[in-house]
What does this fold into?
Amino acid sequence: MVPARILNQINDKCAEGLALALASSDDGAIMEFQWCNKAFTRITGYGADEVLGQRGTILIGPDLEQGVHLYIIEKLMNWENFSTKGLNNRKNGENYLQRMGWTHLSDPETGDHWWLCSIIELEEERITPAVVQSDQSTIVDQEGYAKTIAKVHRLEKENARLHELARSVAKDANEDALTGLSNRRHFEVELKTWIGNLKAHGTEFAVLYIDLDRFKFVNDTLGHDAGDRLLVSVAHMLRDLTDETDLVARLGGDEFVILKPLGTSALNVSSLADEIVQRMQAPFSFDGKSTACSASVGVAIANAKMEVPEQVVADSDAALYHAKSQGRGRWSFFTEEMHAESIATKQLASDLLLACERREFVSYFQPLIDAQTGRIVCAEALVRWPHPTKGILAPAAFLDTAAHLGILKRIDEIVFAGLSGALSYFDEAGVDLPRVAVNVSAARLADPTFIHDIKSSGIDSKRLTVEILESVYLDRIGDVVRWTIDELDELGVTIALDDFGTGHASVQGLLQIRPAILKIDRHFIQPVVEDAGARSLTASIIGIGKSLGMRVVAEGVESDEHARIVSEMGCDYLQGFYFGKPMSKTDLHDRLLETGGQFWSPELRDVS
It folds into this structure.
């Protein structure tokens, strides 16, 4: 640790102007000064209180050449160490010759990025006219003149090159490289200007947030070249539909935004949103192939009555989310209801993060019954969240928000740890629960740490069934998923494919996964009592599973007649509200004690 008395001497005695600025991790050109020494204030003319909290632009005077200014921005954006030499201005406008240096520093503990700026004042360079003492002065003058002319030409070329560089750097700093629209950086700068005009002059404007609905599908099916072509095509369309006074920007990926003056009516804004949606309904073609890629649009108005007009972009994003939730390929205005929903979502996100810290997530259990004996053979563990004020919440109430926060893995870990304790609870009470089953997304299967989480949970792997939920991915199984499935097999974990028959998984996908258990979706099971066609379709699905050596589960069994029909059709296991809704481990414990594990008597008919 350097003693404070040494640091104070650097501050007092160092002749070189030094300052430290904390930089944005996203853009090295965005910074705020946090410290400077006395030499820095003496050279620049700014007091320490005037420097601290200011951006680096405070050091750009009117006499600093534009090319140098843009060179500085380019180097800062790219996190490059560099120095420049040239005329600049003090606070009072006086110009002076300086050498300015920038050195990138980083804090390994916090991850913060810093700039060390150094400024040295140089003596101005003067050219002393040469005194020629020669009888051949005319020849010397002619040679000097020629050299001067050549130097002037070189300087003119260099000046032209610097101007071209300045234009290029300015363009790169403000334009999206692919589409030529404004980029995120330029949009954010312009947005501040528009908000400033709104506050000062009441100039209201609209924000249209645009997102392509099926852009990933285009990339996956036609390739990234096609995706780029589509983005360029959308950019041309947006330019064609907007006015010169509008700002059109690409924020990144397949997200675009438009700033549009409101004028006397919002009708032109709604007409623009409607036209964008209609234009995007047309098919997109690339190399002779055609596909559809609709767009959703969220619209919000920045008006003079807003307490926080900076919220308008987030409002338009909320309207976009609403449009997508209503079926995509449409547009939506931001409403107060969306505002309330946005606040509720933010509160839910905050509660979820706290719930992870407190490990509040628990499992509820739904029995799986042996169709031949009527005894419990397994219980599917379904995550529940005992919310402090809202009570027990099912996954539909929070999983989407949890996925957006990136905490699904954390919730999985909490659930797995709780399962080990639940099995011990049943075992110690002397009740028989042979196995538990857990739902696992395909994305979680692709997580290399998934196997480690199972091993470290303490669960007996031979008493665990993993149910794969997102079978939509099974036909494009990756190496990591294949490795995970092989590891599960080796551990003795049983693999089940959930919701089969919904159209996501093919027989080829089944052959790749090789699940031991096939679960038929409840929508096929529920109509089998009344519908002969449903029975034929269900029988076909059962036949597929049996032909591949799999045991078959019928989900959605809600009556004795349901149970008997699907049992006679060949289902091995039964699951549904007829045998019990998802229940806490205490309730399941009591039910097992009460029934001795016998949930149904196949020999007896329910005549109630």
Observations:
- The chain has four domains: 4-122, 136-170, 184-334, 352-595.
- The mean pLDDT is 85.
- The CA atoms of residues 245 and 351 lie 43 Å apart.
